[in-house]
Amino acid sequence: MTTGAQAGRSLSHRHHGKPPAWLSRAKELLQDFAGAPPSIEEIAHSAGVHPAHLSREFRRQFGCTPGEYGRQIRIQQAKLHLTKTRWPLSQISLQSGFSDQAHFSRTFKRYTGSTPLEYRRSFTSQ
Prior knowledge:
- This protein is an all-alpha fold.
- The chain folds into two domains: 4-69, Orthogonal Bundle (Arc Repressor Mutant, subunit A); 74-124, Homeodomain-like (Arc Repressor Mutant, subunit A), CATH 1.10.10.60.
- It is built from eight helices and no strands.
- Residues 1-20 are annotated as: Disordered.
- Keywords: DNA-binding, Transcription, Transcription regulation.
- GO terms for molecular function: DNA-binding transcription factor activity; sequence-specific DNA binding.
């Protein structure tokens, strides 16, 4: 299980060398499709590598799996919606690529340490 502290660390480069171009493209694909991320097979095909190689190199270079990275991007997107809109949580969960509000809330709490509602309230009470 990834904690909020781990999630923050894994967005930065873990390996200090420059990633290969195909790996950077794979990472960009995850960022571009944060709401509905493509499968690891689709990303690997687009990058021209085997899915297992992509997963292994992604973790080595960036400190997390492609799936974890995609969830981190979606949580960041949700944070923006929580602080900048008055959308209901159900809409934010769908806009952020989660299948339902319960899954969104569990994942959000795992990555941030607070529920989406607690997070929103911490910004509206300031």
